[in-house]
Structure formats: structure tokens, C-alpha cells
Task: structure prediction
Amino acid sequence: ARSFRTSPLPAGDVDGDGLPNSWEIAGYDANNDGVIDVDLPALGANYRHKDIFVEMDYMITPGGVDLGPNQAVIDAIVAVFAAAPIANPDGATGINIHLEKDDPVPYDSYLVIWNEFDAIKNVYFDPKRIATHHYMIWANQYAANQSSGVSRGIPATDFIVTVGSWNSQGGTFEQRLG
Result:
């Protein structure tokens, strides 16, 4: 963590991404103690271009299949968001999505939503990121169905992507990208 910048920062949220300009320029002080807890500028934030930050935890099957995205899938998701026809104050279109593949979490063939999700989130997601990041778990399945995922609602910051039931390798490239 670094010390908070004391010079004046532009007020508001110029790009309308839900992250105040001051956080995107100087970082986020979750405890209001003068120390930056989430260094959004170092993570690539731009107060003039829409940013979305996502922490992605993932399960590994008993057979060793990593259900999380590989770098090719992450790069493809980033490209899809970058190509979105969304205007920004910097004159460019698109959304900068910042995907962080983080921790393997305990495997469960059928993740119970939202009880199990919350139990995992409470252990693996730093509460200082609640205001800045979405939280996602790449899982096998939720409940006993073959849906590709679920969000806690719309709008929401929590969601699950389920790829375990698609094939023995946790889905194809296209299924994970979807």
C-alpha cells in the first residue's frame, strides 16, 4: 500500500463506470486511513475510459482440470469488451476489462448458490476490493443443471461461470469465451 495523494483530484466519475475519478487517478483508500488499499492506476485504470475490474477465482476438478480461463480466453474476453461500441470521454470506444485470475478455490461438483459462493468469497476475496472489483468463480456447475452461469442479479457484482458439464476439459475455447 502507498500513501494517499494530497493534491486536488477531478471530482465525480467522468467516464460513468462507477469508479470515482479520484480512485482511478490516485487509488482507493478502503479504510480512510490515508493508505491506498487498491492501486487502481497500477492496475490500469483510466478515469476517462470505462474500466471494469474482476477478480476470478476458479475450481480444479479432482482429475486436475483447471476450470478457470487460460490466457487465450482472457485475451479474447478483453478484446470483446475493447470492441464494444461504448463511447468514452477520451474519444475512444470500448470498455477496459481487467481480469485477474487469482486463487484456486475448493472444488464442489454442484456449487450451492449463494450460500457456498458467499462462504468462498469470504475466504478468498479481500473485502477492501468490494467497492472496486466484481467477484467471479469459475466452477463446475451450480445446482443440477447445465447452465453456463448465473449472476446475483442485474446489476450485480457477483457471478459464477460454470463450464464443468460441457465436456471433460471444462468446455471449449468458445464456451469459456461465451
Notes: The first helix runs from residue 21 to 26. The helical segments are 21-26, 71-82, 115-124, 173-177. The CA atoms of residues 52 and 97 lie 5 Å apart. The first strand starts at residue 2 and ends at 3.
